[in-house]
Design brief:
The chain has 3 domains: about 1-70, no CATH class; about 85-145, no CATH class; about 150-300, no CATH class. About 40% of the residues lie in helices and about 5% in strands. It has helices at about 1-25, 30-40, 65-70, 85-95, 110-125, 135-145, 150-155, 200-215, 230-235, 265-285; strands spanning about 220-225, 250-255, 285-290, 295-300. The chain is globular and about 90 Å long.
Length: about 325
């Protein structure tokens, strides 16, 4: 944020210089307008138009907005490879769906590749790999354009809706329990994280974007988040032991736009979800199963399973 503030102050100081050096010296306009009003026939050159239509205050005339743009400083780099800042962590989270990344304060080579992909695919501008104000503004537009409000509600744990459940239910995002029923602050294996990681929802936004923008997938739509958070009470009720849904996973259903879900055959539903798997492997560098840490992982499908496939980087 400090760099943003510095950039703003730089623009303001340049505007002050512009006002002193260019605008104030141009304020003779009123005198010219008054003079020509008093003597409208003073100009006798037939090749020069008379000045009888000049605005007396000059408001509509003496600043050319297009030309003024060139007097302000060009776009400045806010963050680039090698930088470290808490804002970079937020960028790494929000653009994780463009090449895959981890929530770190460091602007790494992965961050640079991610920015380039976002510039190429979403912004459709030159790939610089650096963060300037245009990138920041584009991230805000991306957030507004692909809302996940309804999906967030669907992603909350459903344990409170279960009947005859003897375990304490959560408020949607666990009770910080571990697999042995104890609570604690250390997020070891089996603990309920206090929410779903935001990276999941930003990757969901990127799925929605690529469905919209890539003609291979434009017949699809994200229908629902069928499963998001699942606490230990949910696991016990469903006789389940998996822990990836305790803050680190989303299950989504994707269908064809022109058909209701009930009209899809089993093979059609599988095919729709497999196409989204293709988006994730191509655009987010996702892999099947969990061969590596610090990446996006996919569960197998009936037709998409790569037991030996690793990440390229």
């Amino acid at each position: 944020m400090k760099k943003l503030d510095e950039a703003l102050e730089h623009v303001k100081s340049n505007w002050q210089l512009e006002k002193e050096q260019r605008i104030k010296p141009s304020l003779w306009w009123k005198e010219v307008a008054q003079a020509q009003a008093q003597n409208p026939t003073a100009n006798t050159d037939a090749n020069t138009p008379k000045l009888s239509n000049l605005s007396a205050d000059g408001k509509a005339w003496f600043i050319h907005p297009v030309a003024m743009i060139d007097y302000f400083p060009k776009s400045e780099i806010l963050f680039q490879k090698g930088d470290k800042h808490e804002v970079i962590r937020e960028i790494n989270i929000r653009l994780a769906g463009f090449g895959g990344n981890v929530p770190t304060d460091e602007f790494t080579e992965r961050t640079e590749r991610m920015i380039k992909q976002f510039q190429r695919d979403y912004m459709q501008v030159e790939e610089t790999g650096v963060v300037d104000i245009q990138v920041i503004q584009a991230i805000d537009r991306f957030q507004d354009e692909y809302s996940i409000d309804s999906f967030f509600t669907q992603a909350q744990c459903q344990c409170s809706t279960f009947k005859n459940l003897t375990e304490p239910t959560c408020n949607g995002f666990g009770l910080n329990k571990t697999n042995n029923g104890k609570t604690g602050a250390n997020y070891a294996y089996g603990i309920e994280y206090p929410g779903l990681h935001r990276t999941l929802f930003w990757v969901l936004r990127s799925i929605m974007f690529y469905i919209d923008s890539d003609e291979r997938y434009q017949h699809l739509t994200v229908e629902i988040v069928s499963s998001g958070y699942r606490c230990w009470a949910d696991n016990i009720y469903n006789n389940r032991k998996s822990t990836n849904h305790m803050g680190k996973a989303l299950d989504i259903h994707v269908i064809k736009k022109e058909k209701a879900k009930s009209e899809h055959s089993r093979d059609e539903r599988i095919n729709c979800c497999d196409l989204v798997r293709d988006i994730l492997t191509e655009k987010t560098n996702a892999e099947y199963r969990w061969f590596h840490s610090n990446g996006i992982a996919l569960e197998n499908s009936y037709t998409r399973y790569h037991p030996t496939r690793g990440r390229d980087n």
